[in-house]
């Protein structure tokens, strides 16, 4: 990178955060959010950050800390993730525990397959046309009544749970949801073993969405539930 710069003065190296920097960042964010930590919580948080003092890890870990209650007992090393990958996997597992692996993996697979991201409406349309997902979130009565639509409330909750792992960007005058860092997409791909065929299927689903293949109605066939 340095070789591509016209002026060598434009290049500077970001050094690892020292103890003073870490405590300052923690105090500043907590102050912005009008939150505080107990002494043991603050010690465990700062000690964990020292193990990987990079901004991406610090930001994710601080998001976790903002959710702690004052009664939560936190021990460095045993209660806190020690890497970016483990932090992301912890968030994904939290979503899975609430909505199941099928819903979580299909949702994130679409985001992994979309080069620039998807709008919220596009993502909801894709999930609404995915029979595996719909069977997970709708009751048999809703399916028989023809109420085939992925609940927007689930997506909004998932987005809140994932926090800064996802971001909203503007592309061609359009707001799109995408991964805020490529390492997050890599962790999701590895967790759900997203293989070439699954990516191809996601691409087919996205192509059908933009070609308006299923405008108005997509057949919902569930033989074991006598639905078609």
UniProtKB/TrEMBL annotation:
<keyword id="KW-0677">Repeat</keyword>
<keyword id="KW-0853">WD repeat</keyword>
<protein>
    <recommendedName>
        <fullName>NWD1/2-like winged helix-turn-helix domain-containing protein</fullName>
    </recommendedName>
</protein>
<feature type="domain" description="NWD1/2-like winged helix-turn-helix">
    <location>
        <begin position="83"/>
        <end position="200"/>
    </location>
</feature>
<dbReference type="InterPro" id="IPR057588">
    <property type="entry name" value="NWD1/2-like_WH"/>
</dbReference>
<dbReference type="Pfam" id="PF25469">
    <property type="entry name" value="WHD_NWD1"/>
</dbReference>
<dbReference type="InterPro" id="IPR052752">
    <property type="entry name" value="NACHT-WD_repeat"/>
</dbReference>
């Amino acid at each position: 990178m340095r070789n591509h710069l016209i002026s060598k003065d434009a290049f500077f190296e970001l050094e690892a955060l020292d103890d003073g920097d870490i405590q300052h960042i923690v105090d500043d964010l907590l102050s912005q959010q009008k939150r505080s930590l107990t002494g043991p919580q603050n010690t465990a948080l700062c000690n964990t950050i020292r193990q990987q003092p990079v901004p991406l890890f610090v930001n994710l870990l601080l998001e976790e800390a903002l959710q702690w209650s004052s009664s939560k007992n936190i021990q460095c090393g045993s209660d806190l993730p020690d890497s970016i990958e483990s932090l992301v996997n912890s968030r994904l597992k939290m979503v899975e525990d609430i909505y199941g692996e099928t819903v979580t993996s299909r949702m994130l697979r679409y985001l992994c397959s979309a080069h620039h991201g998807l709008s919220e409406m596009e993502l909801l349309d894709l999930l609404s046309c995915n029979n595996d997902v719909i069977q997970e979130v709708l009751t048999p009565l809703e399916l028989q009544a023809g109420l085939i639509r992925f609940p927007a409330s689930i997506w909004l909750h998932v987005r809140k749970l994932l926090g800064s792992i996802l971001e909203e960007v503007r592309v061609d005058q359009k707001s799109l949801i995408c991964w805020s860092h490529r390492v997050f997409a890599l962790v999701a791909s590895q967790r759900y073993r997203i293989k070439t065929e699954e990516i191809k299927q996601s691409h087919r689903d996205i192509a059908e969405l933009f070609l308006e293949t299923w405008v108005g109605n997509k057949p919902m066939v569930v033989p074991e539930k006598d639905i078609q």
